Amino acid sequence: MTIEERLRAQGLELPPPPTPKGAYVPVVLHGGTAWVSGMLPLRRGVLLAKGLVGSEVSVEQAREAAREAGLHALSALRATLGSLDRIERVLRVAVYVASAPGFTSQPDVANGVSELLIELLGDPGRHARVALGAARLPMDAPVEVEMAVAVRP
Question: Which domain holds residue 111?
């Protein structure tokens, strides 16, 4: 089953490709690697949640937000690559979590995107990862997700 078929089978639809809000591009393709810029958890242009995880946003809300940001990353990849089936392997995922003081469950939040990638790609979706706490993120988002992906020619 292709990645696109798995998306449909799970009832998932990728959002429209992101439009940069600054002097950068959503994806840089270089030497067989696609570097995806940080993606926010927007649905129809509105953040799924706002604020700090652990005080204003629950871990479950943040996990769902990380999953949504992952869908945006896949949308940016599809727009750049022409097809998600060019993805050979997810190499690394970075998940930034806007964290309330004392919050230490960033890995639980990051599992939202990690589990999505494994569901859609199987073993090639397993990746190295970093889950980092941040004071605040753009637009007061609770999470931001970036990734590096090995791609087929």
Answer: 3-15+26-151
SS3 102: coil
| pLDDT tens-digit series, residues 105-144 | 999 999 999 999 999 999 999 999 999 999 999 999 999 9
Q: Does 56 reside within a domain?
A: yes
- How far apart are the C-alpha atoms of 101 and 81, rounded to whole Å? 40
CA distances from 68 to 32, 74, 108, 148 (A): 25, 10, 15, 17
CATH code of the domain covering residue 100: 3.30.1330.40
Report DSSP state, residue 114.
H
Does a structural domain hold residue 147?
A: yes
Q: Token pair of 143, please?
A: 């999470």
Closest residue by Cα to residue 52 from 114, 112, 110, 137 = 137
In a domain, 21, yes or no: no
Total number of domains in the chain: 1
| Residue 21 confidence (pLDDT) | 85
Whole-number Å distance between alpha carbons of 114 and 146: 12
Write out the two tokens for 46: 């509105």
Q: What is the chain's mean pLDDT, rounded?
A: 96
